Amino acid sequence: MEGLKVWRLSSSISRPSSFRQLFGLGSSSCLILRCSDGGAATTSNTRLPSRNLRSSTSTSTSDREAVRAIRLKKVEQLRSKGLEPYAYKWDRSHSARELQEIYENLNNGEELDSESHHVSIAGRIVARRAFGKLAFLTLRDQTGTIQLYCEKERLLNDQFEHLKTLVDIGDILGASGSIKRTEKGELSVKVDSFAVLTKSLLPLPDKFHGLTDIDKRYRQRYVDMIANPEVADIFRKRAKIVREIRKTVESQGFVEVETPVLQGAAGGAEARPFLTYHNSLGRDLYLRIATELHLKRMLVGGFEKVYEIGRIFRNEGISTRHNPEFTTIEMYEAYSDYQTMMNIAEEIVTRCALAVHGKLTIDYQGVEIHLERPWRRETMHNLVEEVTGIDFTELGNDLKVAKDVILKALGVGLDIKDKFSIESCPSLGHLLNEVFEIFVEPKLLQPTFVLDYPMEISPLAKPHRRIISS
């Protein structure tokens, strides 16, 4: 049984410098897809300006606390008027997108005031303008935005004054009323009544002009989604991808299982584990670094096709491209080899692309990526020779000589970090992989299966049936 390591799906907002979603084959009977969950990703490379950093941070914190104190007073004012600023429920009849679609053909200046066109919506206030006895608020829910058209004469009691003095940008409101399209063409809900459903205690980032602090965008993804609503689309696409993966593999007879996250030994990969302590058992346990070993035990127990979508934890580097916790989709099938797994990988990715984009040609950072099958299949040795001109099979078994040849041929222009990585390689297999990662990976723009990884970097892999060193 031979294996496959496939595709990294990023839900992170960051964009790598090149399309490094390439495919690599080892040799165990499995398919592995790594999915980076940007919900917790952080970056160690982000550097905030050091100039006046302490002063600006202190001022920012002071401003936030002042705003919070003011809004807490508004919470008290609402409660003193018998209004609960944190509601239990709101009956919503439509989403913003539904209203935009239903009343797409409503003419400018036209109003529908009958009972059949009375609607109820809810969402976050992201903008507001007030002109005497008239106020306009932009309400956004998860589907889009719509305008609230608020007239003093139309609202009961002191609601208009409450709207002007107690409602802030960032609050979540429920509103009901009729449908109107303004003279300027803005579809609006002409508000009869409203209620504060959740009072926001802090202002939206950067006065709703967008959250630009990269570090904060990764550490507070919920704030990022408020300030940059397009970010939520990444999460929705990721959900579609995971759903399509399940549909694809289960249509081929695979059974989904769950294996232990806490393990007595960290196995199935080469990685540094997180260590924890189990009080009842009185022993150390590790957060898993792979699902491999327990899935293989499922095969031993009699299952012939199993897979798991599972969380993995590796106590290693952290950046916008590497997260200490991430998701893998790992599959095992009896009586098959890596040729079968490559076919399954093609099927999964093409079906996911169709589910998300509706086509197999995707524009990525100005480059057209073609996902039509079949994809290119090439060995790591051949790809390295193709890009660098160096045939590793002719370098012999002397590691020092091989390093000297590599650095002499490719060392010009290499940065210190890459030179050190090459010089630190403990074996020819590691050296081949290092050259591949530095020189070949950035050039692999189209879907490519990379075959015959060296044995030194393929733990638990079965030796190649024909090539001894792979």
UniProtKB/TrEMBL annotation:
CDD domains: LysRS_N. Its EC number is 6.1.1.6. One of its GO terms (molecular function) is lysine-tRNA ligase activity. Keywords: Aminoacyl-tRNA synthetase, ATP-binding, Ligase, Metal-binding, Nucleotide-binding, Protein biosynthesis. It catalyses: tRNA(Lys) + L-lysine + ATP = L-lysyl-tRNA(Lys) + AMP + diphosphate. Residues 43-62 are annotated as: Disordered. PROSITE patterns: AA_TRNA_LIGASE_II (PS50862). Residues 44-61 have a biased composition (Low complexity). One of its GO terms (cellular component) is mitochondrion. GO terms for biological process: lysyl-tRNA aminoacylation. Residues 235-470 form the Aminoacyl-transfer RNA synthetases class-II family profile domain. Belongs to the class-II aminoacyl-tRNA synthetase family. This is Lysine--tRNA ligase.
